[in-house]
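Issue 218. Parser rejects a valid record. Input:
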Amino acid sequence: AVQLYESGGGLVQPGGSLRLSCVASGFDITKYVLYWFRQTPGKGLEWVSTIDAVGPWSDYADSVKHRFTVSRDNAKNTIYLQLDSLTTDDTAMYYCAQDSEGTIRGQGTQVTVSS
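Output the parser choked on:
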C-alpha cells in the first residue's frame, strides 16, 4: 500500500528555517512526480511545490519561491522541503502527496511560525 510519512515540523520564530521530510513506501519515487501542499484550518489545500520524478526540475508557488527548496534522495525513497525565511503566513499543516490534487498524502507535519 502507498504510504507517505511527513516529519520535521515544529515551532520556529519568523526568519527561521525548518527541513521537512517525506518518506514514501509502497512505491518507487523515481517513477512519480511528487508534491508538497499545505493547509490552514478552514481553508483548502494550497499547492506549495512539485518535484520531477528523475530530473532536477521543480516548481514553486509564488508565495514560497526563493524561500523553499524541494529535493529528493532516491536511495532513501524520500523527498524534502527546506523552508527558509519563514513568516507567520507559512504556518500550516504540510503534506507530501503522490498526486497533483493532494488526495494521496500523508498525515502531515505541523509548521508553526511565531515569535
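Fixed in the parser; the record now loads. The CA atoms of residues 29 and 77 lie 6 Å apart.
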